[in-house]
Write a structure and sequence with these properties.
The complex is a heterodimer of chains A (about 300) and B (about 500). Chain A has about 300 residues and is mainly α. Helix content of chain A is about 45%, strand content about 5%. In chain B, α5 packs antiparallel against α7. The N terminus of chain B is likely disordered. In chain B, strands 6, 7, 8, 10 and 13 form a 5-stranded antiparallel beta sheet that branches. Chain B has a 5-stranded antiparallel beta sheet with strand order 11-12-9-14-15, with no helix packed on it. In chain B, strands 1-2-3 form a 3-stranded antiparallel beta sheet, with no helix packed on it. Classes of the chains: A mainly alpha (about 300), B alpha+beta (about 500). The structure holds iron/sulfur cluster (2 copies). Chain A: Its main location: membrane.
């Protein structure tokens, strides 16, 4: 009895320097002290083990060959997210209902609804429209900039909504259609006629004539009036009914250089925008319309 | 020969003996009576009274704002303090307040030691209250010791239960008062009792009940001695002119029983005034023996002064053997010099000056801050657009703040762009005198998209500095924010 210490080890196992019992393990004369784990640490560790066991009983835990143990609670992350989405819809319901009931004009005139629609529209734009039009709707070659005041298919609230709902040259029955023919490729015009028409069109908005070029404007005017005026109008101011751009302004979707314009006349242009009706719910489309319209103030 | 060296050696020896881990000694201080005890009771009643009752004080701010004098409205991001209202972007006032608090603490310390610790710190105040409850239920330490021997198990268990119940009630009330600062107090009290209050209110009451119960009931002086950084900082801030609770060893030593010291005195031998009754130790809420000199654990509550003065009165010796005194004066007395008091010192003047400066800046900025504001963010993508007629347009998001409790109408203008045309997206503005005007609700922030376009020829790589200005249509107050106008 006298030669055991508090740890129950024999006296000859006690390290002389520290006074702590050793485990009896020895390596080249170095012995291991037996300092037990702190009690609180040990209990925390046991509690973690118990926790882990309970966890695999109640929650999905172990992978099996074709599935996994589902746990007695039957919890599924997919269902959890659906519940959260439903919660979100209920939270938004107050505003979403108002948005649904209000006309586009009413939304734009109410500070509250405008703010809500712009916030929701910005999110929907980022998810759906940004791949083509860019995150800030600045567009790029062939994809219109929605911040400016040039609207191919009309910039009123109703026209913007119509475009979003049904798209442009999409598969939707009510889509905007309107073709710029490939005058050169389809051999409707000869090359010199196309060049003359292009020079004439560029002169309408006062674009500078490249060096070494002497445009034949009279011939170009004739070609324009015979072939282009039907859609673009006799004065070239365009027609949003047909998506025919205004050729007298400073905005050129496919570039304003002489080569660009010649290429447009030769090969035609037919950008496509998908129809969003059926893919996005009507309220989201309303929000999107207001957001896009308020970007550049519409027309 | 020199008493000071003697005492110092005693301290050093005792430090050498202290093991790295010190087992907790439970401390049951005796009740004392005297000046400092009275000051402490008064401050306890005043500070706790403010804490528990302030949420119920009303302050009329008109129909569109809460009428609670002190309220942290987290949901709407507002802090109300009587006539002051702070918005989240004005959080620097809180920073200023914290700087001020630190400086006041430094100043208090330079003048009279740990006034904060001894009298005002919540840890001290609540511990004091809990100890009073303990003494009320279980009696003073002497009665406790007797009960431990004589009283029945049942009585002791009953008393312990009563004590913990009372502690928990105080703790619960403490947590309850805390949440009242975050919602309309009378409504919340009603909701709490009818079980309709938000869950987070109950959760916070639970958390604070627990912390109060544990910190004031069980940990007590351990918080001050081991957890709180202030004692360490304090030691670096004190100097030889600061008043601290001091045992005047020059007068007290050599200590001895009343009989012995009287006998020595009659024979003309040196004898001190300390009768070694250990009442100062028994009264100390942190279990310190102040006779060993200034030390970390002493919170300078002054209770040992009261305890000793009571003893001195009984034995017919002058009071003040333990007193607020300065290191300098103890030394000077030993050298036979008259005591000096020096409150105006470099550090006190510096702290006071800084307090005045920081306080002055805060008051000035509070007094002159406007009740409206505007902030502007330039669209990043695209930076500008070209319009069909060749004009260049920049889009901005304007955020207008109306801090008044009634709706106001603001006219919006931009300076710095030649031939500027300014439009507000959406149909939310009216035009008045050629300027768009929007209405901003009471105590609200209003965000709008503003389009600025110009036909003017801009300098190459243009980035013109511009200023947006809002003007209250009725009152004429204005506020402005700078930005840039970019071109190709
Ligand atoms: S030593 Fe005196 S002043 Fe310091 S904490 Fe104890 S009772 Fe208070
Ligand atoms: S209370 Fe006063 S007399 Fe008594 S031990 Fe303390 S210092 Fe000495």
């Amino acid at each position: 009895m006298a030669d055991t210490n508090a740890h129950g080890a024999h006296k000859h196992d006690v390290d002389a320097v520290s006074g702590v019992a050793t485990t009896g393990h020895e390596w080249d004369g170095i012995r291991e002290l037996n300092n037990p784990l702190p009690r609180w640490w040990l209990w925390t560790f046991y509690a973690c083990i118990v926790w882990a066991v309970i966890y695999w009983i109640v929650y999905p835990a172990w992978p099996l060959v074709t599935g996994y143990t589902s746990g007695v609670l039957g919890w599924k992350s997919r269902e959890a997210i659906q519940v959260q989405l439903a919660d979100l819809r209920t939270q938004r319901a107050a505003f979403a209902d108002k948005l649904q009931a209000a006309s586009l004009e009413e939304i734009e005139a109410s500070p509250e609804l405008l703010a809500f629609a712009r916030a929701q529209g910005r999110a929907a734009f980022g998810d759906n429209c940004a791949p083509c039009h860019g995150a800030g709707a600045a567009g790029s070659r062939g994809y219109p900039n929605l911040n400016d005041d040039d609207w191919l298919w009309g910039g009123s609230l109703e026209q913007v909504q119509q475009t979003i709902l049904h798209g442009i040259r999409s598969t939707d029955a009510d889509a905007h259609v309107g073709d710029m023919p490939a005058f050169g490729r389809d051999a409707m015009l000869q090359r010199p006629e196309i060049v003359a028409a292009a020079d004439y069109v560029r002169s309408l908005s006062g674009l500078p004539v490249p060096q070494g070029v002497t445009p034949d404007l009279a011939k170009g005017k004739d070609v324009f009036e015979a072939n282009c005026a039907a859609c673009h109008g006799p004065d070239g101011k365009g027609n949003p009914e047909l998506g025919a751009p205004n050729l007298t302004d400073g905005i050129w979707l496919y570039g304003s250089s002489r080569d660009n314009v010649i290429a447009s006349v030769t090969n035609g242009r037919a950008g496509i925008m998908p129809a969003w009706a059926g893919r996005l719910d009507p309220t989201t489309i309303k929000a999107l319309t207001v957001y896009v319209h308020a970007l550049g103030g519409g027309r | 020969m020199n008493m000071a060296t003697k005492v110092e050696t005693a301290v050093e020896e005792s430090i050498d003996d202290v093991p790295l881990y010190e087992a907790r000694r439970k401390i049951y201080p005796i009740a004392v009576h005297g000046t400092f005890r009275r000051i402490k009771w008064t401050l306890l009643i005043v500070t706790l009274g403010i804490y528990y009752l302030l949420p119920f004080v009303r302050w009329d701010r008109g129909p569109n704002a809460p009428s609670q004098a002190v309220l942290v409205d987290l949901a709407n991001g507002r802090f109300y303090f009587f006539f002051i209202e702070i918005w989240p972007q004005e959080i620097y006032y809180v920073t200023g307040l914290l700087i001020l608090a630190a400086l006041v603490l430094f100043l208090m310390n330079a003048v009279a030691g740990r006034v904060w610790c001894g009298y005002l710190c919540p840890q001290t105040v609540w511990t004091d209250l809990f100890q009073a409850i303990e003494r009320m239920v279980e009696g003073d330490p002497r009665q406790r010791r007797e009960k431990l021997k004589n009283a029945s198990r049942g009585q002791r268990a009953f008393e312990a239960a009563a004590k913990h119940f009372l502690w928990l009630m105080v703790a619960w009330w403490t947590g309850g008062a805390w949440v009242l600062y975050f919602a309309d107090a009378p409504t919340l009290v009603w909701q709490l009792f009818t079980g309709t209050a938000p869950l987070v209110a109950y959760a916070w009451i639970g958390i604070l009940t627990f912390t109060t119960y544990v910190l004031a009931g069980h940990m007590r002086e351990q918080v001050c001695t081991y957890m709180c950084p202030w004692p360490r900082i304090q030691a670096a801030l004190t100097d030889e002119y600061a008043f601290n609770v001091t045992y005047r060893y020059d007068r007290g030593e050599p200590r001895g029983s009343l009989k012995k010291t009287e006998a020595l005195k009659r024979e003309g031998l040196p004898a001190g005034d300390c009768v070694d009754c250990r009442q100062c130790v028994a009264a100390c809420p942190t279990g310190v023996d102040i006779r060993l000199g200034a030390q970390l654990a002493c919170v300078q509550c002054g209770l040992c002064i009261d305890a000793c003065d009571t003893v001195m009165a009984k034995v017919g010796r002058p009071a003040g053997l333990i007193a607020y005194d300065t290191e300098m004066n103890v030394e000077r007395r030993q050298q036979g010099l008259p005591p000096v008091t020096k409150v105006l010192r470099a550090r006190t003047v510096l702290y006071a000056g800084l307090i005045l400066l920081v306080g002055g800046i805060m008051v000035a900025s509070l007094a002159t801050r406007g009740s409206e504001g505007v902030a502007v963010i330039h669209d990043r993508n695209p930076l500008f657009v070209q319009l069909s007629d060749g004009a260049i347009r920049n889009a901005y998001t304007l955020r207008i703040v109306n801090k008044q409790p009634q709706p106001r109408r603001f006219a919006i203008a931009v300076d710095g762009v030649p031939e500027a045309r300014l439009e507000i997206a959406g149909g939310i503005s009216q035009a008045e005198n050629g300027q768009p005007v929007v209405e901003v609700g009471p105590d609200q922030t209003y965000e709008l998209r503003v389009l600025v376009s110009t036909h003017a020829k801009l300098p190459a790589e243009a980035s013109l500095p511009v200023t947006f200005r809002i003007t209250d249509v009725a009152g004429g107050e204005t506020s402005s924010a700078p930005d840039h106008f970019k071109g190709p």
